[in-house]
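Cross-posted from the bioinformatics board.
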Amino acid sequence: MDKRPTINDVARISGVSKRTVSRVINGATNVGVATREKIQKVIDDLGFSPDKQARGLAASRSYLLGLIYDNPDALYIDQVQRGVLSVCSERGYELVVHPCNYDTENFIDNCVHFVKRSNIDGVIILPPVSESKKLAAALRDRNINYVRMASVDLDDHANIVVSDDRAALSDLARYLVSLGHRDIGIISGPKHYYSAIERLEGFCHTLKELGVDVAENRIIEGKNTYESGIECARSLLIQSPPPQVIFANNDEMAAGVLKVAHEMGVAVPESLSVAGFDDNLLATRVIPSLTTVQRPVVAMAALAAKKIIALIEHYQTEHQDTYLVKPHLIIRESTRKAQK
Amino acid sequence: MDKRPTINDVARISGVSKRTVSRVINGATNVGVATREKIQKVIDDLGFSPDKQARGLAASRSYLLGLIYDNPDALYIDQVQRGVLSVCSERGYELVVHPCNYDTENFIDNCVHFVKRSNIDGVIILPPVSESKKLAAALRDRNINYVRMASVDLDDHANIVVSDDRAALSDLARYLVSLGHRDIGIISGPKHYYSAIERLEGFCHTLKELGVDVAENRIIEGKNTYESGIECARSLLIQSPPPQVIFANNDEMAAGVLKVAHEMGVAVPESLSVAGFDDNLLATRVIPSLTTVQRPVVAMAALAAKKIIALIEHYQTEHQDTYLVKPHLIIRESTRKAQK
DNA sequence: TTGTAGGCGTTATCAC
DNA sequence: GTGATAACGCCTACAA
């Protein structure tokens, strides 16, 4: 590899000590204007940029951000990565990815070890892993910076970005009732996920307010997978009469509903309206396209990145306090007015 | 953060010099058995592991692998990441992701700079960026280790993993002809991508061998996007008569074909067979499910990771030579025998 | 087989 | 405002 210029080169050429160069690099205020300009010029001429490793070794920082997740939704991950990276590149950080197994017993040690062995400066944690109190506690105990992305306000606002799924589902409920539907089926997510509970409650609560009750046998707990969506849709659609609407906790399962409806000869949206959640790639590809809820994932991820950097660099910003973003309803072809 | 034990602690406690500890850490052979065991015990007791930054600074290595891509297919990226990471975790590396804009003029500088500023030990490059001769040349000039994933054998075998798309498309052609189809439409990928050319040629070549000619107006150049698939499908299906089969260069575009067929009242697979490429998530979700070609992406990525590490650590392995993997045909609902 | 000494490129301490 | 000098934790000639 070509030898890159070092701080020593800069110091020698500009005729000052490297301590002073260091001051300029780090934007310290106590440097004479003339000195600063002279040094800056040399830096520019040389194309010098500080070596991350040396810098990290001395300051015990790595300029590395970690992304911890156990989420089957690749599209979601991809959007998060893009959001985080847009901030990283501005601020001189890099992103190290770390998928893990939420289920395994040693997953907390695994994550901690990940951070330790590479001196990761801070981690962003995605749902559903982000819902783990144990992980958050373990990180906090070890003074590891983290920011969680979640659907519930379960941490200090400096450590979390939450999407208001409850409010979004409330909107969806209102919309469906406005179409004249009163018989609604639900395929929820796994009940041990806060996100699933939030969505379910937000949905049912508003329905109730509007005078619509959801019978118990119309709520089925799914696993957020396509296969599970198929299974649950089947047990919902063999009921007689079948519901007028099915809301599925994510688009994957909603796609499963479409599949089963097609098999059973149930026309969507003529005889059955279907809604999902995520605005996954699938939502537009599927026929009919899905009415769903879109989270501003890229923006949330960027916000999370700003927060983690604020934590690392110990400064206050307005980002510290803003933490709540609201997803919005996207109406497509899979929902329609109730038949008379 | 808790203070981690250092090599000095290990040396002091085991009563040897840190040079000897260093030898044990790095698996040097010239250490007395007794000494080695004694030191190893201390290492285990302390839970010591060498600091990556210090190590990197001294040895000018970072134990970081980079992943360079500009690919809209999040699913593909996700699979690659998992494949690479499975090897990384075994070998003590971490993965740093770097999406970039293939189109922009400074993308090469951007990538080089990415590697330099974090002292990335080596990069894995995904298609279509991997097809860039300029990038490869730039990396080689600067002695940056790289491995490309591609559809064509366009580099030293130590630097590439290629999927034999040509052979796979040959299989597809044979399969379609065996169903009795002779009138075939094609939505190719952008012609400036090798992958698109390989697939197109592999397909047409075998068709010709089987006595099937594809008329020029039956081949349309798409852009690998869903929208482009819709557009191209339309101009193919308004021809009279329309083709019996449409092969699209990827599943995204094939999904577009299904959409248009649905709009135009063309039954798939009864009146039109459709095939894609990738075995994207879409392939199974869509109705009817797609006949397509699956690349063993995770395995390819793992192989690429092994190759890049071999390059970094300068050793020969059998991985150096194996570089070609063959995708295989997956037959689903979207293709069917030609009607009499 | 083992140890000594110096260096990797930066930041931090504490004088001046 | 500026500059020696010592860390930071590890690796690598070179010596013994």
